[in-house]
Amino acid sequence: MKLQLALDRLSWDRCFQLTEDVQESIDIIEIGTGVIKEYGMAIVREMRKRYPHHIILADMKICDAGKHEAAQAFEAGADIATVMAFAPQATIIETLETARSLQKEMMVDLLGVTEPQLVQELVQLGVTFVGLHLGKDQQKQQQIGSELFDLVEGLSVRTAVAGGVTLKSLPDIIAYQPNVIIVGSGLTKAEDPHTMAKQFKEEITRNV
Ligand SMILES: O=C(CO)[C@H](O)[C@H](O)COP(=O)(O)O
After folding, report:
1. pTM of the model
2. What pLDDT does 83 receive?
3. Any idea where the Orotidine 5'-phosphate decarboxylase domain is (predicted)?
4. Which CATH number does the domain 2-207 belong to among 3.20.20.70, 1.10.10.10, 3.40.640.10, 3.40.50.10320?
């Protein structure tokens, strides 16, 4: 089970300070959608340069122009890029083919998906990795619950889980055995991100 740091709503300098602070404890560095909108592929390129041994995920949240946008992320140095589950099948297929041709990977973000049928269709399309995601705005009313994991019940697909994960909620999430746990605010807003990341990593290591 891998730990992913999500860099969202941060300045360029803060992204690098935080990453440096927690880098020993994390496996994947996610450059968040808002950060990409602010700084473009330049921040993906710089992250790749500074952290050659970490996995880098560009949270592109692609919903059209799949080939072009996936290639942008991969050519900048990302190992994984994201595409939205609600995107047209043609877009999802374009991103999967682009990833395959460059030996990279797509994660399909299930934000807003409530029907397991759609996830089954995605798997039939060749999707092998999905993000179970409770969005920032949804987090005001809800917490991550079993309904997210029900979406992939019985399917052969790797999972990442995201949406307000904290040290307190971590054991309940680990119980579902996702492949990746994504933590944004739980680290970026921590008083001491270095120690907090170590605690996340220890808890994950202890429970797998
Ligand atoms: O993809 C995202 C937002 O779209 C975030 O990266 C993800 O939700 C993790 O952040 P947080 O732990 O703060 O919810």
Report:
1. 0.97
2. 98
3. 2-200
4. 3.20.20.70
